[in-house]
Specification:
The complex is a heterodimer of chains A (about 110) and B (about 130). Chain A has about 110 residues and is mainly beta. Chain A is about 0% helix and about 50% strand. In chain A, strands 2, 4, 5, 6, 9, 10 and 11 form a 7-stranded mixed β-sheet that branches. A 4-stranded antiparallel β-sheet of chain A has the order 1-3-8-7, with no helix packed on it. Chain A is globular and about 35 Å long. The termini of chain A are far apart. Chain B is an all-beta fold and about 130 residues long. Chain B has no helices and 11 strands. Chain B has strands at about 5, 10, 20-25, 35-40, 45-50, 60, 70-75, 80-85, 90-105, 105-115, 120-125. The model of chain B has no long low-confidence stretch (mean pLDDT about 95). The chains are: A mainly beta (about 110), B mainly beta (about 130). At the A-B interface, strand 4, strand 5 and strand 10 of A face strand 5, strand 9 and strand 10 of B.
Chain lengths: ~110, ~130
Amino acid sequence: DIQMTQSPSSLSASVGDRVTITCQASQDVGKYVHWYQQKVGKAPKLLIYDGSILETGAPSRFSGSGSGTDFTFTINSLQPEDVATYYCQQCDDVPVTFGQGTRLEI
Amino acid sequence: QVQLEQSEHEVKKPGASVKVSCKASGYTFASHGISWVRQAPGQGLEWVGWITAYNGHTKYADKFQGRVTMTTDTSTTTAYMQLRTLRSDDTAVYYCARVEMLRYLESFLPSRHDYWGQGTLVTVSS
């Protein structure tokens, strides 16, 4: 199975900060990494797909980059409503696997 | 608008089975797959498996192989996940998600999970 190593596991930042989360795949996954936001008690929500494409309706302060084994998710100008846990996911092969998650606090 | 409506919470005893439903609406059911993802209390996301709605092809994660069955009913645009021989560590919220299908050779792979159900809590307790 492809392992997705996500870091950090938690972080605290201030409103207006730029926040970066990384995900490293155990093997080449091409561009097939997606990023999700999960707020407490809610289902995950897709924010970025295929490494860098912003999902329709997602705020433009969210962005993604990377290919191969190294991927980055960025929030520019952090907002209070961004408090959540963020997950990366690889879909290059089955089983689909997720990173461990990053809990973001403000 | 795309919606996935899941069945209500379930409480089961160890060794029993559970069947969770996921009613899809607002899109062409056969054009996408459905994945099932679970989340144990306080834990991360774990992929259980997926099914292509147009032909019922399934792929399960190894740890669930033999205990899980995923099906779809195209007449009612509903997906189902049955998990058998339940254990206490199967206690989790189970989500269904609509999946884009990525063409791979003669088949498909699951890609982005773009819409999710609200989740169904399955509690396994004696």
